[in-house]
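[09:14] KT: can someone run the structure on this one? pasting the chain below
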Amino acid sequence: MQTTDYNFNIPGDISEIVRISLEEDIKTGDITGQLIPQAKIIKAKIISKDLGVFCGGPWAEEVIQQLDGAIELTWLIKEGSRIKPQEQLASLRGSARNILTAERTLLNFLQTLSATATTSNHYSRLVAHTKVQLLDTRKTLPGLRSAQKYAVRVGGCFNHRMGLYDGYLIKENHITACGSISTAIAQGQLNNPGKSIEIEIQALNELEEAIQAGADIIMLDNFKLSNIVSAIELNAGRSKLEASGGIDKDSLVKIAETGVDYISIGALTKDCQAFDLSLLVI
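[09:31] RB: done, structure tokens below
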């Protein structure tokens, strides 16, 4: 099997995720695939029916490797490249049974991750003239978080924290439960020294308290454009600022042009329309 070079830090859980996905689909065996003579060898191709950014090659390769390493998979495009309708992406040669058993799982990964990369690329191109970094969120498909966050990087955007364990995001309910912004930040610094602390504020009058308490990043939640501008002026570069909440394609560019450091957008991973791909026997 031919592999391609990947420069986007492939997640470490890929083998386990593929194993679970194959088990979900095959269980006790592919009874339809068993209609085909075991010795039958075929050639097949994967073609695109959409315009966008290709992503998911490592998952497709892992599907083939786990199911039948003798299948020859040859890529005709690179990870992260732009593809167009009717473009051939790969060719396969090997056991007819095993190629057709692999088909759905392989395409599921490619269509989902290409969709995520394509959406991310679209958003990143809209703000390419600014210094802002567009961040994903934890609004990902269960079990596919590391894969979708990989696809976000392939598309040209950036990752927020992976989960609840690797960085603080102190939100309104946390602040209420802790008693205050200052108390929540102080407890975070005490519990996990060195961990990045981000805190969400709802209004400009909370900004100074968050800065003085030592927040690394301050999330401006559902702020109007004028209030984002005011927050940047008041902050004067002391903390990083992130805009979030209700941001769509129409408001994105205007917010990016304010000079805010980050914009987090759940749509990068949750509003993707599956990429249309096909595997055809030739």
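[09:33] KT: thanks! The mean pLDDT is 95.
[09:34] RB: yep, looked fine to me
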